[in-house]
Write a sequence for this structure.
């Protein structure tokens, strides 16, 4: 957009001790984001390298010690996802502000940097309201189901070579199973709210899942066929020479579209379309129940771009500058590559969110069944054929 | 307003009755529509209005003629001075006041500035209803410039109370003509971006083309006017049909579209903005920089007993006023004909059979403003 | 049948004042004459009764016409023209809401701006702006001759009543 003249004299600009909060400070914003990413990176290193090293040094890496180690890692991952949500919400608001010729949060912390922490505190302090018409048990359970299902996807995400909680050889199958579960939370939450808007939102979420899950699974299958493994680490390793987005261009595009739908992200945010269904499935939620839906949404906003990176952009691969593979320094560098690649994809998703209007829900269904599934099948056959010839 | 709800049809279990509004984010204020939904498809729609009712017409009967003008401002609050004009024109007709040429041109400039402002608000809110957040902020920045220009001259931004019997209340600010010229340059650049964001967006195409088709005959019979009528292929524009103020002096076209769908209504509003820019460019040339801004109106306004209906083409269509005078200094009866009031009547016609998401798009293309509908 | 009406010309529009029983017949005649665009219906409290004013336009030649009819307070019934021009539906509801004019044959004559349970018709002159009855307000006498009586023709060949419809 062309720059518009902002009339300087028209705005009331409160100043506190000479500090003008409404002044744009790009370097400060970047410093704040870097600080969050640094904390995130430290947590990743602690989780995947620090804790195993500690338990290994103490000799607790077998039997119950191993169980405790995994439990500690999960707790750290929960912390990590909280940091992630705080960062992503801040980045979303700041970035939307940039796109929309305004500033975004400016007042709390340097360049608005701790605004989201205050928001989270506000949600903690709010009453967790249960409507009279709601089915209490299901209503309470739904945010937990959504969050746990999203959070469980962390288990198979490889941040660096060997840096993964469960390097299982059925990683893709696990992902399909778990990512579908989060829709159950949305469905249960919407249906149990006793609100018609929430009900419509839940039904839309169900209908939407039926449309995008099949092409998504077909793309998973294509990647598995191309890489010859179901393990996510195996898929990343198979991309050492050539990142998958070049040979698998068609599945890659389909995967991005399907991830947008899975994220319930503009242009496919039908279950919570705020101009149509007010807030859709979570209209009756408040306080921490709402916060868990929100947390799940932003965890997914990290995880689905992360999966794009794992499947198509070589995961943690990048120049290691002579570091010995498998060492702590190499792992740290690899996890940084992984984080930064994911950040680029998060930015692309936010960019889409800032730009596009919303489709109608039946248009996604039509598109998914009439275009995406045939194309995904075609991509699958093509990948199998290419693999037969070249590998 | 009505507390009425739709009664469920006996024996029919697949229809859900949903109360959309008056606190729904896409109803542009306080519209309430009771919908029967069969899945996503609308089976019944009953609109209820009146949640913003203040009974202007009764209040205006108790006010003197000059005191009525600020009340009219409060009707269509996004298009400011446009609301004052029909009342002012009607009283001028009854009084036989002569309006100086320069005053007529200044009035027309403000009229078109507010058409731009109103269509910018429409564009932002319509895109917000379709799910895009950013155009809303862009258009409000541009509207801000227009309101700034209005404020410099009239002293108020949204509700300027600027027109008066025989002309305008005070002369324009010395910067006015230059600022309007700058604004037009700026808007012409921005319109390119807006076309990319709105008219050329494939998502907007998918949401609007073929949605909510209003036939020409139905549109006329329903008394629909303004961009909604012209999008159905009727070239009826009060500015051309019953010219007022400086419109006979300027050249402009009436954009019409034969399609009658939501996209056509979007398209017509865009073309109207181009025509407004064109009219303003001509008026910048034509308007004398100095001169009288007000004709000789009597100090105490007492129109002779009689009645007069005058209409103008405001941003939403034919905005009329029917004034009855009994020879005193207060109007005996003032009846406002709201364009959005008439346009909103077609809600059941367009909603029934549409998808729920389509209903939101259709409603945004009608561009209702509830200050005027509920009066 | 001869319509009981009075025709005047004011500014650029024809004004017909018609007996309420002939209101519907005149509207049908105007509709047949091509007046296709309904502008508004206004209800007016004239002090001796209620008046309904219908503003119409013919789009292709921009002729304007106003039809008005007077009814007494005791029996404010006017035929609805919603089936001729669906666009007057809400305006007739508004006139009913504000003044209590009953439109016979209206498909859905409910209050539109006020609540269903509202008791007054606020635009009646017997109430002040607060909605309280004005003490000492008395309706005026019904005009004699009736409002729709044509003025006595100065010359025998002047303005034949019921000739209206075309804009001059």
């Amino acid at each position: 957009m062309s720059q518009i003249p902002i009339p300087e004299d028209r705005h009331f600009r409160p100043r506190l001790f000479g500090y003008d909060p409404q002044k744009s400070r790009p370097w400060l914003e970047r410093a704040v984001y870097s600080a969050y990413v640094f904390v995130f990176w430290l947590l990743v290193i602690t989780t995947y390298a620090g804790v195993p090293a500690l338990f290994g040094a103490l000799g607790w890496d077998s039997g119950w010690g191993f169980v405790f180690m995994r439990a500690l890692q999960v707790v750290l991952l929960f912390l990590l996802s909280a940091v992630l949500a705080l960062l992503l919400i801040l980045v979303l608001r700041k970035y939307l502000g940039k796109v929309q010729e305004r500033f975004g949060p400016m007042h709390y912390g340097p360049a608005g940097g701790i605004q989201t922490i205050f928001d989270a505190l506000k949600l903690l302090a709010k009453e967790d309201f249960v409507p009279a018409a709601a089915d209490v048990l299901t209503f309470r359970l739904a945010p937990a189901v959504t969050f746990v299902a999203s959070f469980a996807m962390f288990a198979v995400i490889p941040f660096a070579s060997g840096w993964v909680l469960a390097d299982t050889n059925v990683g893709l199958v696990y992902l399909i199973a778990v990512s579908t579960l989060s829709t159950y939370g949305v469905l249960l939450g919407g249906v149990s709210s006793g609100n018609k808007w929430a009900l419509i939102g839940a039904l839309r979420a169900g209908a939407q899942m039926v449309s995008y899950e099949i092409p998504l699974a077909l793309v998973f299958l294509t990647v598995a066929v191309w890489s010859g493994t179901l393990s996510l680490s195996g898929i990343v390793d198979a991309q050492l020479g050539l990142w998958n987005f070049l040979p698998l261009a068609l599945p890659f595009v389909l995967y991005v579209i399907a991830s947008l739908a899975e994220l319930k992200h503009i242009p496919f945010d039908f279950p919570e379309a705020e101009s149509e269904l007010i807030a859709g499935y979570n209209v009756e939620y408040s306080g921490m129940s709402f916060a868990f839906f929100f947390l799940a949404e932003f965890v997914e906003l990290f995880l689905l771009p992360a999966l794009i990176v794992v499947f198509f952009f070589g995961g943690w691969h990048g120049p290691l500058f002579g570091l010995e593979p498998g060492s702590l320094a190499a792992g740290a560098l690899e996890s940084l590559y992984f984080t930064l690649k994911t950040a680029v994809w998060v930015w692309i998703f936010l960019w889409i969110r800032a730009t596009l209007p919303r489709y109608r829900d039946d248009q996604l269904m039509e598109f998914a069944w009439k275009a995406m599934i045939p194309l995904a099948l075609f991509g699958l056959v093509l990948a199998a054929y290419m693999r037969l010839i070249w590998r | 307003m009505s507390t009425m709800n739709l009664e469920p049809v006996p024996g029919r279990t697949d229809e859900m009755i949903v109360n959309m509004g008056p606190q729904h984010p896409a109803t542009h204020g306080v519209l309430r529509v009771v919908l029967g939904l069969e899945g996503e498809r609308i089976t019944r729609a009953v609109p209820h209005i009146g949640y913003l009712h203040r009974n202007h017409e009764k209040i205006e009967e108790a006010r003197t003629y000059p005191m009525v003008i600020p009340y009219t401002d409060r009707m269509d609050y996004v298009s400011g001075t446009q609301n004052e004009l029909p009342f002012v024109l009607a009283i001028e007709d009854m009084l036989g006041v002569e309006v100086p040429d320069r005053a007529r041109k200044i009035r027309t400039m403000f009229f078109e500035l507010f058409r731009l402002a109103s269509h910018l608000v429409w564009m932002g809110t319509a895109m917000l209803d379709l799910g895009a957040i950013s155009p809303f902020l862009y258009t409000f920045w541009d509207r801000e410039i227009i309101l700034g220009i209005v404020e410099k001259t009239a002293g108020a931004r949204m509700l300027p109370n600027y027109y008066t019997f025989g002309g305008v209340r005070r002369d324009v600010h010395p910067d006015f003509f230059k600022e309007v010229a700058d604004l037009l340059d700026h808007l012409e650049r921005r319109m390119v971006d807006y076309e990319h964001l709105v008219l050329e967006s494939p998502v907007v195409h998918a949401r609007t083309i073929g949605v909510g088709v209003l036939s020409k005959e139905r549109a006329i019979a329903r008394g629909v006017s303004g961009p909604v009528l012209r999008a159905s292929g009727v070239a009826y524009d009060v500015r051309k049909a019953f010219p007022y103020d400086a419109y006979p002096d300027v050249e402009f076209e009436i954009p019409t579209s034969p399609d009658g769908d939501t996209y056509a209504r979007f398209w017509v509003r865009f073309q109207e903005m181009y025509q407004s820019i064109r009219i303003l460019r001509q008026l910048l040339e034509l308007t004398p920089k100095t001169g009288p801004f007000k004709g000789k109106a009597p100090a105490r306004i007492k129109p002779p007993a009689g009645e007069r209906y005058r209409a103008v083409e405001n941003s939403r269509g034919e905005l009329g006023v029917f004034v009855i005078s009994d020879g005193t200094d207060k109007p005996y009866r003032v009846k406002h004909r709201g364009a959005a009031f008439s346009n909103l009547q077609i809600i059941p016609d367009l909603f029934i059979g549409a998808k729920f998401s389509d209903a939101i798009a259709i409603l945004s293309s009608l561009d209702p403003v509830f200050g005027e509908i509920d009066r | 049948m001869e319509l009981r009406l009075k025709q005047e010309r004011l500014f650029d529009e024809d004004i017909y004042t018609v007996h309420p029983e002939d209101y519907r017949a005149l509207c049908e005649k105007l509709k047949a004459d091509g007046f296709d665009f309904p502008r508004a219906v206004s209800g007016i409290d004239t002090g001796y009764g209620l008046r309904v004013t219908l503003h119409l336009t013919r789009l292709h030649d921009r002729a304007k016409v106003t039809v008005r009819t007077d009814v007494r307070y005791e029996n404010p019934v006017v035929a609805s023209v919603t089936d001729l021009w669906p666009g007057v539906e809400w305006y007739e509801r508004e006139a009913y809401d504000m003044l209590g004019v009953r439109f016979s044959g209206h498909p859905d004559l409910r209050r539109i701006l006020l609540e269903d349970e509202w008791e007054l018709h606020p635009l009646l002159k017997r109430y002040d702006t607060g909605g309280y009855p004005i003490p000492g307000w008395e309706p005026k006498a019904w005009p004699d001759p009736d409002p729709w009586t044509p003025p006595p023709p100065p010359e025998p060949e002047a303005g034949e009543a019921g000739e209206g419809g075309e804009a001059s």
Observations:
- Residues 64-339 of chain B form a domain with the Cytochrome-c3 Hydrogenase; chain B fold (CATH 1.10.645.10).
- The two ends of chain B are 12 Å apart (CA to CA).
